[in-house]
Amino acid sequence: MGRIVVITGATSGYGLAAAKKFKENGDTVIVASRNAEKVKQTVDQYSFDCGFSVDVTSYSQWLELKDYVIDKFGKIDLLVNNAGGGVAIKETTELEPAEIDHILKLNLNSVIYGSKLFGTVMKHQRSGMIINISSVCARHCWGGWSVYAAAKAGVLNFTKGLYVELQPYHVRATCIIPAAASTGFQKGAGIDAVEESLSAEDIANAVFYAANQPEGAVVEEMTVWGTSQRVEPL
User: Fold this and answer.
1) Could you say which DSSP state residue 182 is in?
2) Residue 226: what pLDDT?
3) d(CA 225, CA 136)
4) Closest CA to 6 of 64, 74, 110, 82
5) pLDDT band at 228 (very low <50, low <70, confident <90, very high)
6) How far apart are alpha carbons 182 and 87 in whole angstroms?
7) CA 213, CA 165: separation in Å to the nearest integer?
8) If you write DSSP's letter for every residue of 107-151 in order, what string do you get?
9) E strand or H helix at 51
């Protein structure tokens, strides 16, 4: 399809699955993630066009990523804000202030930083799309996930406001809301993995579907549950 696509957290999980999906369909994919060695390994292993090491909690590193993409390709068609993580799944009273700050920076601030910088480019282009990855925790919260849920609820509502702001410039914004899937998320959050019916590829397919709507349509949000998962009531 020939689009310039930036995906954060693209060396594993949803991000890697989405990167592979877009590449298979003819898009130029910039693999962005924090670990420079993993970025290089991923680019080499799957023959992606290029990669960039970025700590998404750092605004200055986002600025470097934006400058790299525009200098190299001259435009941006799609940003997938996928990077995130549980960090520490504990009750609020047990969390250290540094853990709270990191959860919010990794899962919410990062999305706002990327959307601001690449959204500015898209406004000038008068084209583009931003897809932000939230979580069912945004609406269905469990004990120990309260701060993470606050961040992901922020992503959902930020995306709605972002679309209102960017719509006059023909730029779209979509929020994908996944349930638990088989990725490295559980290990990163320090919790046990659970067998679920969703795969990273299921979420990648949802992202790809949203990204391929005709210019006159936008998916505001999409929640993806596995058919064997219990859907908690609102």
Assistant:
1) B
2) 84
3) 9
4) 82
5) confident
6) 17
7) 19
8) IIIHHHHHHHHHHHHHHHHT--EEEEE--GGGTS--TT-HHHHHH
9) strand 50-53
